Amino acid sequence: MIRSSTRAAVLALATALLGCGASCAAARSGSAAPAASATTAPVPDTLLAMSRIMALPSAQRDAWRNYVETSRSRAAQDRAAMDAELRGAGKATWTPAPAGRGFEVTDAMTDAWFAGDSARRLADVLVSYQTPTGGWSKRIDFTRPRQPGESFASERSWMWIGTLDNGATTEQLRFLAGALRAHGDPAHRASFLRGIEYLLAAQQPAGCWPQVYPLAGGYHDAATWNDDAGIHALQVMRSAAAGDFPWVPAEMRARAAAAVERGVGCILATQIRVDGRRTAWGAQHDPIGFAPVKARAYEHASLSGRESAEILDFLMRIENPPPAVVQAVHAAAAWFRAAAITGQRYLPRGEVTMDSTAGPLWARFHEIGTNRPIFSDRDGVIRYALSEIGEERRSGYLWYTDEPAATLRRYDRWARRYGTP
Q1: Catalytic residue positions?
Q2: Can you list the pairs that 27-30 forms with residues at least 24 positions away whose Cβ atoms lie under 8 Å?
Q3: 0.85 cut: is pTM over it?
Q4: Is residue 393 a contact partner of residue 365, using CB atoms and an 8 Å limit?
Q5: What angle do CA 207, 133, 85 make, to 5 degrees?
Q6: In angstroms, rounded to a whole number, what is the distance separating the alpha carbons of residues 421 and 418?
Q7: How far apart are CA 149 and CA 109, in angstroms?
Q8: What CA–CA distance (Å, rounded) separates 333 from 120?
Q9: Each residue's pLDDT tens digit, 288-310
Q10: Are 51 and 343 in contact (CB under 8 A)?
């Protein structure tokens, strides 16, 4: 559970995120932070344009400018480290890392398994692929250590060096935590602490996390809830702050606790308001103005059924939540109930059939204002029936989810403790 801060601390955080004016008065009076606008987002390529940053009030302007400049410096350091490694290996260019499905901590990785040599060897491999900045890439086959002059990613570019996408970085940290509890290897501890520093550095001034850091531009710079990237980062920060990783020093635990507080402020700020009512969250948001933004052509600015469930679960784990969090939880649960799709079953390969016995479903993307499910092919045209898009995207993407049903059951238990709206 998240240890509660004072009500004043959370409200002060929301105030700092959103600037002064009417929002300051609202925060000081005990209301929730103003929710994201549903209509005023910039296009993804301009999210962190310096022209936007320079138009901010001075405190925000300086924080964002420092954040962007630090990212550029870290990107340069990553490339310089690779160039030095190539020179040492006598190579002209790097080669991609072996491609794989990615990495996750599985149920088979029990305490007993972590105590064995296989876990120690895998930890060594993971450490070898950690970027100089401290993160990891995705889609790597971690069957052998990285070789001199080999990329930190399996792609032939620097796009995903490093990232929080698809569980990258946070899953490696979860694994290293298990290995450290079993073996306590100093090299693994140093790698883990570098990973925590990476998450702290990647957190945006407003408390959110981008998909890729150092920054890669475009929608990758957005405040990213897609695939639970920001929530995974918050979960690691929460565990670090709570002392779940005893090898993390006190000073770093304090910074992790502050990161959690700022992250909760980001959650409150990005909750989308429709007709004056708080609803759920988008998959990604403008990191400065908080409005939902689109990503790939078929990922429109919308209300996200799947990602919003993970956000709601995170909020419900806050002990003695302040009024702003309570309001956000109630509002999101109400939205889930209003947006639920009944009488339909989602089948493999992207088929939807009528079935009166099926449990409730939610779309990956709900249209803001109507809650209608929306779908797109790679042409970016919004359609309102899954059958209207081509087979490649229809079967190659998760368009519906039933995960919020379990979240709503947990909400019912939460509401018995913290009241109903």
Answers
A1: 166, 296
A2: 27/324, 30/323, 30/324
A3: yes
A4: no
A5: 165
A6: 10
A7: 31
A8: 43
A9: 999 999 999 999 999 999 999 99
A10: no
